[in-house]
Amino acid sequence: MNALLANTPCDVLLDGNQRLGPKLMAHPGGLQYMAIYGFSSKKSYDLFCANSDQSFIPYPLVKGYLKNQIADSVDTVQLVVIDAAGPQETHVNAATMKSVLEAVEQKENQVALSFRLTLDRESQAYSVEKALAKLELASSLAKTQ
Q1: pLDDT, tens only, 60-103
Q2: In Å, how far are 1, 14, 49, 69, 129 from 18, measured between CA atoms?
Q3: Close Cβ partners of 130 (under 8 Å, ≥ 6 residues apart)
């Protein structure tokens, strides 16, 4: 099966010295998630900013930050939401920080997307699910048609 790919992000959103990301729903008794926004181009970043009421500062995505986040969070799945069109987008895709780090270190142009986030309008938070399940479903539907 082919993986869903996105361009490798090179920038993140910064507020002071905090990287910004979408609010995620809690998963009681299950895996916990944390996400930041990542952008592969100025065009993607500008689109996000145009669809937001806030002003943001782009900051280079650095390997040291990714390594520290991965090392410091053994109980949390760290995600990078790549090229979101805005902070209220209904569905966004994400890669793990580990996958992004590997892509950056290997100078890969693309990274595999492994999670899909869906906005719950009532809570204004995203639910997180593995993208593979969505890809397998789409593949099985295509085979039966």
Answers
A1: 988 998 999 998 887 899 999 999 999 999 999 999 999 999 99
A2: 37, 6, 17, 12, 25
A3: 114, 115, 116
Tokens of 100: 């992004």
Q: Which of 128, 107, 131 is nearest to 119 (CA)?
A: 128
* H runs (alpha helix) in the chain: 42-50, 63-72, 97-105, 131-144
Residue 68 lies in domain: 5-144
Diameter of the chain measured on Cα atoms: 51
Mean pLDDT for the chain overall:
87
C-alpha 28/C-alpha 121 separation (Å) is 20
End-to-end CA distance of the chain: 17
CB 120 within 8 A of CB 127: yes
Closest C-alpha among 43, 19, 38 to residue 83: 38
* Domains identified in the chain, total number: 1
